[in-house]
């Protein structure tokens, strides 16, 4: 039986996810069957654009429906916890856009619920499923870089005036929006939790970080230096350096289509095409996480080994630490979650 997806919200990232999904020829036995949004007319337009059969008036109706097996949640950051909880409590698997939640306490609560319900839950860190990341991992595991000692990552795009980043009530934060990609890459490379985190940043008039520089120190003198900027475009590549050489994920490093190997060879990873335009760079790659989700559910797993629950918890802890050091506080940080 096909894995049936329901799309939660009809925004830009949901458009890109569905477009990538529908145009990918090798996604296996899975299909998008429904969409829900707060504005039903917007959901209806979305369904028409993407040839989705069913439109639901409310998220609650979609969650209660027997028409879907899994929800893709593309909502704004403050809604991730409540919507993921709604669908898990309704017996549905969940793929939730990053960040999984606004803080560690919410993420831990959500993961505990998924484990209790024996349902699949994954934070949609699509980078982890990039063919270039998998190629990087193979090089690291083969020891091609020798002893890996250093990582430098830059991610800067001029989005400081975009509401989702600039407004605290929308969960705005450079580290939660684009900085997350730099943090997850450091964890992907070094695996261990850092022994020290040092962060400095700049806040806007709403008390939201718009610039962050983060240094992660690991055992054995290993270090990652991460620059996050929402006012200017940086050269958004990542370089992993070891005692035997370096590997570079080219711009955009968070889902690159080029990787420079230790020997200088450039390997390219072309993406499938679509007749509909995308909102974000290389969004065709969003489908790879859907393929992984389907594989895991078919095998009876409730988490992916490539983006595990523990990976999300460490990421949430790092995000909390950075926000605290630069001075960003959300109201939910003062709440407890069971």
Give a verbal description of the structure.
This protein is α/β, with parallel strands linked by helices. It has two domains: 3-127, NAD(P)-binding Rossmann-like Domain (Rossmann fold, 3-Layer(aba) Sandwich), CATH 3.40.50; 131-268 and 308-334, Dihydrodipicolinate Reductase, domain 2, CATH 3.30.360.10. The chain contains ten helices and 14 strands. It has helices spanning 12-23, 40-50, 59-64, 80-89, 104-117, 131-141, 163-166, 174-190, 287-298, 309-326, and strands at 3-8, 30-36, 54-56, 70-73, 93-97, 121-124, 148-156, 196-203, 209-217, 223-229, 238-242, 245-249, 258-260, 266-268. The strands form two sheets. Strands 8-9-10-7-11-12-13-14 form an eight-stranded mixed beta sheet, covered by helices on one side. It has a six-stranded parallel beta sheet with strand order 3-2-1-4-5-6, sandwiched between helices. Helix 8 crosses helix 10 (309-326).
